[in-house]
Amino acid sequence: MQSDSNPAITIRRLIDGYQVSQAIHVAATLGIADLLAKGSRTADALAADTGTHAPTLYRLLRALASVEILREGNGRTFELAPLGQQLRADTAGSMAGWAAFIGSPGYWQAWGGLLHSVRTGENAFQHVHGADVWSYRASRPEESALFDRAMTALSRQASAALLAACDFGRFRTVVDVGGGTGALLAAVLTAHPGLQGILFDQPHVVAAAGAFMQRAGVSDRARIVGGSFFDEVPEGADAYVLRSVVHDWDDVDGVRILATVRKAMAADGCVLLVERVIAPPNEGRDAKFSDLNMLVAPGGRERTREEFEALLGPAGLRVAAVIDAGAFGVIEAVTR
Ligand SMILES: C[S@@+](CC[C@H](N)C(=O)[O-])C[C@H]1O[C@@H](n2cnc3c(N)ncnc32)[C@H](O)[C@@H]1O
Fold it and tell me: For ligand 1, what atom is nearest to the CA of residue 183?
């Protein structure tokens, strides 16, 4: 990324960051990185393949080359730079799904309500759309699929670090609570052939999970259950993973979810919260901006270690360990 020591230029680039975000979103939505996977192409050829206006697509591509996502060669040709490779659908840790989701109109509009959130403490998404994210998506299958694809992308990226940091071999049955379409559970079951798994999420989300588990070759060890974690979750397992779930909720609902899990788990069981942990002042940009994302969209928050302890206590759980898993922490909790 180009840097400049002039603070006026640096702040201007930060202010205009939304333009880069939207440009990446458009390129991801058009599948530009996949079209460049085999090598360089001209802007005209890419426009023909994407059904876009060639001179305008060229303007988008050269802007992306200026921030080192693409590289522009002679004759309006473009190839992927290392950052752009991350936008291919087929790379490990692909961010294509996340980029397609994050700039989509409904989500984008909700971020326009950040000022409202800061003034009132209220959820911007609800303010802008008149519905919470979950009911909004439940009635819009395309947007729901876009979100699930984004979550799958993030889950895949987190899986390797989680498996390296956490010994899943000690468990008999793992329930992935709010596990989306099953990317994380599939990775855990693949790494541990002796393990049984249960994927639990909203019925319309897990509807797509059977085929996913089949493709991953773990369907004989993965049970799929639809429901709401405010009512009940599958009983009797010795590990309950919740990745990026409690950060969607405020403390009242967070305690409700954890209490449901606590009620269901085996006496010797544990809960593994896979979440960003808020760092001390001036550190940890990713968690602190993710916290704003939680404020704006689902209405939740990222938490410090102490805030996780305060959330777990009323649910009858206590922190046994906090394990570093790269961008995330694993907060391992057991019954009191
Ligand atoms: C931020 S996503 C994380 C998904 C997945 N754990 C991951 O890491 O990719 C939160 C998940 O919670 C699920 N969820 C939301 N409300 C739910 C409810 N009441 N009961 C069960 N799952 C719910 C959503 O469908 C979504 O899959």
Answer: 9
